[in-house]
């Protein structure tokens, strides 16, 4: 690792796929990431160094100062109570939390509900706000299975196109917070490298604006 370069922890997978084209529009050559195979650290994405990590780990790298900048979904930031400083909404990875279940679910039924989710903290906060005590079962993926198999009464999960909900015969009962990919920064790094970090934010902001303008046109 080059200690003088700004280190950016990018969430691998879905976020990476949407953010790499945005970084390229901002003038950053991402060929090394595009040709990555199983590589996880990229030192030739001048003038930065990129690491690819899972979303929750991106927040850990930032909190421990092992990365200067993180690119991660707001779902992860909220769920993990991240205290990192948010500098930019990248307007990618746009989706929304929903409460969903099978069509016979009654959200107003007075019994204590069982809720399946990848996001226990967000789920607890939502039901606390309704004054409802629920049992939460943490699920790692394919959350939609929970109400279909009787594992849970309902789920709190994110949806983008609504296809997964529809194709599994589920129904949305409530819309919760919206989600998008954010650029967050370690506060100490911002103090040490303000010019480099704000210059990246400016370039990305320009790329987002140009993209929106070309969509409008
Ligand atoms: N359907 C979706 N549409 C848009 N953005 C999404 C959607 N699902 C997740 N996201 C966003 O993308 C981020 C990463 O999602 P992704 O599915 O790649 O990771 P993951 O849930 O950790 O999956 P995996 O465990 O398969 O790697 C989420 O934190 C969220 O911000
Ligand atoms: O509304 P849609 O566009 O259909 O997207 C919603 C799906 O996307 C996410 O799952 P993901 O693809 O990350 O897979 P996972 O179930 O393995 O987490 C989410 O958990 C939903 O299952």
TrEMBL record:
<dbReference type="Pfam" id="PF01634">
    <property type="entry name" value="HisG"/>
</dbReference>
<dbReference type="GO" id="GO:0003879">
    <property type="term" value="F:ATP phosphoribosyltransferase activity"/>
</dbReference>
<dbReference type="InterPro" id="IPR013820">
    <property type="entry name" value="ATP_PRibTrfase_cat"/>
</dbReference>
<keyword id="KW-0547">Nucleotide-binding</keyword>
<keyword id="KW-0067">ATP-binding</keyword>
<feature type="domain" description="ATP phosphoribosyltransferase catalytic">
    <location>
        <begin position="56"/>
        <end position="206"/>
    </location>
</feature>
<dbReference type="InterPro" id="IPR001348">
    <property type="entry name" value="ATP_PRibTrfase_HisG"/>
</dbReference>
<dbReference type="InterPro" id="IPR024893">
    <property type="entry name" value="ATP_PRibTrfase_HisG_short"/>
</dbReference>
<comment type="subunit">
    <text>Heteromultimer composed of HisG and HisZ subunits.</text>
</comment>
<keyword id="KW-0963">Cytoplasm</keyword>
<protein>
    <recommendedName>
        <fullName>ATP phosphoribosyltransferase</fullName>
        <ecNumber>2.4.2.17</ecNumber>
    </recommendedName>
</protein>
<comment type="similarity">
    <text>Belongs to the ATP phosphoribosyltransferase family. Short subfamily.</text>
</comment>
<keyword id="KW-0328">Glycosyltransferase</keyword>
<keyword id="KW-0028">Amino-acid biosynthesis</keyword>
<dbReference type="InterPro" id="IPR018198">
    <property type="entry name" value="ATP_PRibTrfase_CS"/>
</dbReference>
<comment type="pathway">
    <text>Amino-acid biosynthesis; L-histidine biosynthesis; L-histidine from 5-phospho-alpha-D-ribose 1-diphosphate: step 1/9.</text>
</comment>
<comment type="function">
    <text>Catalyzes the condensation of ATP and 5-phosphoribose 1-diphosphate to form N'-(5'-phosphoribosyl)-ATP (PR-ATP). Has a crucial role in the pathway because the rate of histidine biosynthesis seems to be controlled primarily by regulation of HisG enzymatic activity.</text>
</comment>
<keyword id="KW-0368">Histidine biosynthesis</keyword>
<keyword id="KW-0808">Transferase</keyword>
């Amino acid at each position: 690792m080059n200690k003088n370069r700004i280190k950016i922890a990018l969430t691998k997978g879905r976020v990476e796929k949407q953010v790499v084209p945005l970084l390229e529009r901002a003038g950053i050559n991402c060929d090394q990431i595009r040709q990555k195979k199983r590589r996880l650290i990229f030192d030739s994405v001048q003038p930065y160094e990129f690491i690819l990590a899972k979303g929750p780990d991106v927040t850990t790298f930032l909190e421990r100062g092992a990365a200067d900048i993180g690119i991660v979904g707001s779902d992860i930031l909220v769920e993990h109570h991240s205290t990192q400083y948010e500098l930019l909404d990248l307007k990618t990875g746009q989706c929304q939390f929903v409460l969903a279940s099978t069509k016979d679910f009654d959200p107003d039924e007075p019994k204590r509900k069982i809720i399946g989710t990848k996001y226990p903290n967000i789920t607890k906060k939502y039901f606390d706000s309704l004054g409802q005590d629920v049992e939460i079962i943490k699920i790692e993926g394919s959350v939609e299975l929970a109400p279909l198999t009787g594992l849970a009464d309902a789920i709190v999960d994110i949806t983008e196109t609504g296809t997964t909900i529809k194709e599994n015969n589920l129904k949305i009962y409530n819309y919760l917070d919206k989600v998008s990919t954010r650029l967050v920064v370690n506060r100490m790094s911002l103090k040490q490298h303000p010019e480099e970090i704000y210059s990246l934010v400016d370039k990305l902001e320009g790329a987002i604006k140009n993209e929106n303008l070309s969509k409008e046109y």
